[in-house]
Write a structure and sequence with these properties.
The chain contains 16 helices and 22 strands. By secondary structure, it is of the alpha/beta class. A hairpin with a 5-residue loop joins strand 14 and strand 15. The structure holds nicotinamide-adenine-dinucleotide (NAD).
């Protein structure tokens, strides 16, 4: 499987850079254009064994060699961003090619590498104590369908920088895209003088393969990026786990905000990749005295306003009622609607618009399904409020205690501080589109694994390490 020559690798990369390869090419979870993807297995135990070999190879490398592999991953990610973006949309039916391309570029440029691993030294009368950030070993990573290849590459860079091996159990609905990224990481490794199989994955990931991963003795750390079900599953595994779970980010707009900018920023953020990012704006609480102007600005920026009756009709289509294990009726998002274009969603209620419409907006009450559910599609409910107290109270409730992400447009520092304190989210973005919170038009590094429940926050290489201390008593102090 891994017997691909360097000349062949270069030929493939060149063809992609020249644009002669595209998602129109054939792809499966094990092949791309007839080329076998490296690091993909049918048996999770076998995948873990190979990931362990990758880990041992990384352990034997210098940090400089590790960084060479990461540099090569960044180069290939930039060169093949369009291919992954196209496969991602074609396979999942979700999101926007151009936005997915930008997400890959962001991952390539702003995911920290080995520089994120910093040792600490403490000296004193009793000598020197050194604390180093060590790898865990083989990491088991569960990845979502919403940012599939982005998450595989972002996790790989951070986990390899930390000195780990990785085995992925990707989302079955995005397995071809995810495995393309796994193969990319392995090609980069081979090109930079690393092992041919550095990271591994499954050809047909299932809940059973995830269960094997979760209980396998060689897996020392679980990292899970996904909805509440899967995060709960890994946190119950008995192993050290990093959980990056669901959000439902509220936005408050008060009457001190630059309304023209707020309207544009909110639609830009909410419609980015058709609202698939977990950080994207999901519901707005607008002061009543600026709500009309805000809605006007949103419409000027590609939003289409529907009335309450249309909103109720659309809600019955995008949310499906199901009976859960406890026999209770629960509403879940329709997978046929997640990440779809706004015009496609509007067509479902008989409204025809062009592709220039990026987002559907509507005025609703707080209890409306659009406010309460994490839709992950370009539908944005707007609730009018009369005070900052009411806005914060409702926004905190709509966030459902996920403590994931929240946004605010305001120039009142008391309002901004009060909401930030009350909502307690991992990410809080002020006066910008949501994606500024992951380094896109905002300062700071990026990640596609935002670990709120377990506290690592905006994960990076150091999140995937364990601290080890070495003590030299009474010596090695140089003053
Ligand atoms: P999902 O929850 O449907 O699936 C995620 C992964 O978990 C998939 O690989 C799936 O096959 C697997 N899985 C599901 N149940 C499992 C179980 N019981 N045991 C083991 N594996 C299981 O995710 P999705 O729909 O692709 O992604 C959307 C969700 O993920 C949203 O809720 C979104 O907010 C969240 N998300 C969070 C972050 C973050 O950084 N916090 C990033 C992306 C997505």
């Amino acid at each position: 499987m891994a017997n691909i020559t360097e000349a062949e690798i270069r030929k493939i990369v060149e063809s992609i850079v020249k644009g002669t390869a595209s998602a129109a090419s054939s792809y499966t979870s094990t092949e791309y254009n007839g080329r076998k993807l490296i690091g993909v297995y049918s048996d999770m135990n076998e995948a873990i064994d190979h990931a362990e070999k990758g880990y041992k190879a990384v352990r034997a490398m210098t940090v400089e060699q590790r960084e060479k592999i990461i540099t090569q991953i960044r180069k290939l990610t930039l060169a093949e961003a369009s291919v992954m973006a196209e496969i991602g949309v074609a396979e999942t039916g979700m999101g926007k090619v151009e936005h997915k391309r930008l997400k890959h570029i962001l991952v390539a440029e702003k995911t920290p590498g080995t520089e994120d691993i910093v040792s600490e030294a403490k000296t004193g009368d009793n000598g020197l104590t050194l604390t180093e950030m060590a790898p865990f070993g083989v990491v088991g990573s569960i990845t979502p369908s919403t940012n599939p290849s982005e998450t595989v590459i972002c996790n790989s860079i951070g986990m390899i920088a930390a000195g780990n091996g990785v085995v992925f159990n990707p989302h079955p609905n995005a397995i071809c895209t995810s495995n393309y990224a796994v193969d990319l990481v392995n090609r980069a490794s081979a090109m930079a003088g690393g092992p041919e199989v550095l990271v591994c994955s499954m050809d047909k990931p299932t809940l059973d393969s995830a269960a094997i991963m979760q209980s396998h003795p060689k897996i020392r750390l679980l990292v899970c990026t996904g909805g509440p079900g899967v995060v709960k599953a890994v946190l119950s595994s008995g192993k050290k786990a990093i959980g990056a779970g669901a959000g439902n980010p509220p936005v408050i707009v008060d009457d001190t905000a630059d309304i023209m900018k707020a309207g544009k920023d909110i639609i830009d953020g909410c419609s980015f990749d058709n609202n698939l990012p977990c950080i994207a704006e999901k519901e707005v609480f607008a002061f009543a005295n600026i709500a009309d102007r805000l809605i006007d600005e949103m419409q000027r920026n590609g939003a289409y306003l529907i009335n309450r009756e249309q909103a109720d009709k659309l809600a019955k289509i995008v949310l499906i009622e199901k009976t859960n294990k406890a026999g209770k009726a629960v509403k879940t998002v329709s997978r046929d609607c997640v990440g779809r274009d706004a015009d496609v969603l509007l067509a479902k209620i008989g409204v025809t618009v062009g592709k220039d419409i990026r987002c559907i907006i509507c005025e609703t009450g707080f209890e409306h399904d659009f406010v309460q559910h994490e839709l992950m599609m370009p539908i944005l409910p707007i609730v009018r409020v009369n005070s900052i107290e009411e806005a914060i109270d409702l926004a905190v409730k709509a966030e459902h205690g996920n403590r994931h992400t929240a946004h605010m447009h305001s120039k009142n520092i008391d309002h901004l501080s009060a909401f930030a304190k009350a909502v307690e989210t991992t990410i809080f973005v002020k006066n910008a589109p949501s994606y500024a919170g992951i380094g896109f038009g905002g300062e700071g590094h990026t990640t596609f694994t935002i670990a709120g429940p377990t506290g690592e926050g905006i994960t990076s290489a150091r999140s995937f390490t364990r601290k080890r201390r070495c003590v030299m008593a009474d010596n090695f102090r140089i003053i």
